[in-house]
TrEMBL record:
Residues 276-757 form the Anoctamin transmembrane domain. It is a multi-pass membrane protein. One of its GO terms (molecular function) is protein dimerization activity. It comes from Sphaeramia orbicularis (orbiculate cardinalfish). This is Anoctamin.
Amino acid sequence: MEMIGSVMASFVRHKEIHRTLTLLLCPRHLSGGGGLCFSDGRRKVDYVLVFHQRRHSSIRSPPGSSGLQDQLSVVSNVEPGDHEMHLIRLEFEASLVEAGLEIERDREFKTHGPSFTRIHAPWPVLCREAEFLKIKVPTKTVRAEHISTAVCLLLADFVKTTLQKLNQPFQPKVPHPEQGRTKLLSHCFSRDKLHLYNITSKDTFFDNTTRGRIVYEILRRTVCVRTCQTIGISTLIAKGVYDAAFPLHDVSETFVLHEEWARYSAFYKYQPIDLVRKYFGEKIGLYFAWLGVYTQLLIPASIVGIIVFGYGVATVDTNIPSLEMCDERLNFTMCPLCDGACDFWHLSTACGTARASHLFDNPATVFFAIFMSLWAVLFLEHWKRRQISLSFSWDLTGIEEDEVFTITNTRNTLKHTHTFKHGTLSHTNPITPKSAVEKLTWKDRLPGYCINVSSILFMFGLTFSAVFGVIIYRITVSALMAMSPDPEIKSNVRVTVTATAVMINLVVILILDEIYGAVAVWLTELEIPKTETNFEERLILKAFLLKFMNAYAPIFYVAFFKGRFAGRPGSYVYVFNDYRMEECAPGGCLIELCIQLSIIMLGKQLIQNNIFEIGIPKLKKFVRALKEKESKVQEKQEERPPQQWNLDYALAPFEGLTPEYMEMIIQFGFVSLFVASFPLAPLFALLNNVIEIRLDAKKFVTELRRPVATRAKDIGVWYNILSGMGKFSVIINAFVISFTSDFIPRLVYQYMYSQTGTMHGFIDHTLSYFNVSNFKQGTAPQNSEHGDITVCRCKYFAYTEQ
């Protein structure tokens, strides 16, 4: 009664869940029927197949009949374009019945809207497939023997109790059936050893997740030989025979997950990883476990980053180089920033840039770069430890390769099986998927590999072209704004151009990200991988390579190339013979790198989270709701409560974890690769991830159909990518400190050139002299307001001309 009271109290806060549970947790459902069972109220719905079928008139099957012969009696009423698909469905479902599954169809044929075929796996089928798939199940409970002294036992209990009390506010309120001093041993299921398992009820021995996985394994290997020479439900969905296939959500479990995991108000709590793994499978459980470890370790990195930034704020007023740049009495007259239209200018006008540069370019930045390089390595080692712990507790230590999805890639099977043309079935290439894969040789795969290489090189060229286009924009707009007679526009040239150019970069990155994701899928399909695992690994590598170049190419340009090929006064480098190559700001390129990194990182996270992950799914859901209201079937369905399969079909399909991982991997690059220029990057990543965990959780629980539980030993190729980026971050941060930052030039000046051993005179030391009489014809300022200037200064160490 207490549990029911707490559940009903929480309904007031969550009206949508309240309405859904009210429809499903009706008396019929509590007795075994309703939205999760067959019409008899006893057999569970383990899987649902959905299809749309157009008919000239509403046809009813004989009451209480769902056999194939009864369905064949109405085939003649099906439209010609749907006739072959109907035959394929009949054969496919007949094969499922031969495999031992039980099927229930809608009693009414619908003129519009989806039709549902519900599948139930009886006990003999579950036992047979569990033994075949080597599914591990818990054996009977055994008592763990503890041999220890009473003092040690009391001390251990005291420490354990104290830690539990301290962690109690952060623990999710989820059931823990394995509490106590008991240990549940697991063993691969065997029909010959039923006495080893604690089988209290055959209906509940295999949970819903395992039942769905078993049914999917049968669906993916069921063959249609007589009608279309096709194997597996995925191929049938790709051909349009079925629209969707999915297991049903368990409303009681999703309610607990929503309350303790998918709410933003639970951001301070640990994730119920064991419950997530139990409901969604090991693959999704490992993703959220990895995301949780990554987010936790961002806390110390954020603290150190705040300290480094605070050091810059505290010392900005005592920093000698920035004070010298802001001192108008020194009167550093700088050479023009463009030819003809630009005038001489005083270095003191760049005082704000110099002070801002010190916030991110100070001695503490070097320490932070070293710290983050070590942090990346420690993060990977900590995850390895966590992964081994999860592998032991989730019984993944002995998992074999054939237990992981290594099935024939059904996407490419379509290229070698029957196709539909103009509503009719084409039998021009009757090759089974197995033989099709076996006959492929290196000659068959060579064109795909050639297209892959050339397409990737083209995409690289497209990325570099986009970066070059933004460079041209910066150069052109800078020159045009410098020609403006308005002094306010002239004084804000650098800020305006930098901000608008970064915004353009951000938009281009977001657009190309979507294009590259689709191109990576197409290129991987051309290679015709043999297995789903192989397909996924190749897809991840291609998508990561393209998106890595797309996200970091503008940052690499600012960090290592900008201002290094601009030339010097009297011998500038020009683009298209008209525009000078751009130079770094007077305070150095590191402040521009900081601006570039911060805007791209924050903008990418903000737009992806709010538009791509929240706005677009809600928009699709709204469009589907409008279509349902226009459907005639909707009017009939409003007379009775919707079933669970209707509610789940209205959700978006699950499309894999690759986009989720990719988003976090790119963010990991922002945090580790160029963090020396932006110490606050870990803090913003932490704030984003706290929301990201709950956003992804809410999406899995309320926005997506329930995915098939997939076993996985680890996070796969993503760990190799993380490891490579961790090693790469050491090199990149060293290069940023060496070439982009002014840290080394300041050390060289202080210990080799300074007369007093301090930084006094550093700015004068870094500025060269140029005789204005040596300007090329037409490049000198035309209307100078600074009077007679004979010598100007420029930041070029190796050049002096007086």
